[in-house]
User: Which sequence fits this backbone?
């Protein structure tokens, strides 16, 4: 287990470089921070129209944030083939994606 007090020197006001590269610390952050709190995945101003979407991440999980035909904003976890969708705004084939449900 990682002792955070050994990674931060308050007297010298320094942080160990290990904080930025250690896989064990990264995993601990994912478990202790990103799975326990609200995460920013997008802003409603990015989705002005029904059908608009942005690709984002919740920690390490890829998500799609979209505005449905009813104006509601929804967030979908991307799994399987959907997770390989490019992370930039593109037009999705409407037969494959429902803004109210999921990728089919």
Assistant:
């Amino acid at each position: 287990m990682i002792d955070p007090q050994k990674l931060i020197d308050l007297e010298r006001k320094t942080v160990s470089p290990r904080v930025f590269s250690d896989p064990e610390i990264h995993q601990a952050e994912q478990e202790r921070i990103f799975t326990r709190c609200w995460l920013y995945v997008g802003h409603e101003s990015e989705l002005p129209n029904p059908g608009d979407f942005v690709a984002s991440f919740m920690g390490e999980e890829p998500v799609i944030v979209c505005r449905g035909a009813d104006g509601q904003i929804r967030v979908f976890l991307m799994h399987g083939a959907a997770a390989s969708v490019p992370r930039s705004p593109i037009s999705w084939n409407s037969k494959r994606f429902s803004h109210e449900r999921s990728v089919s």
Remarks:
- Residues 87-96 have pLDDT under 50 and may be disordered.
- The CA atoms of residues 67 and 73 lie 4 Å apart.
- The two ends are 41 Å apart (CA to CA).
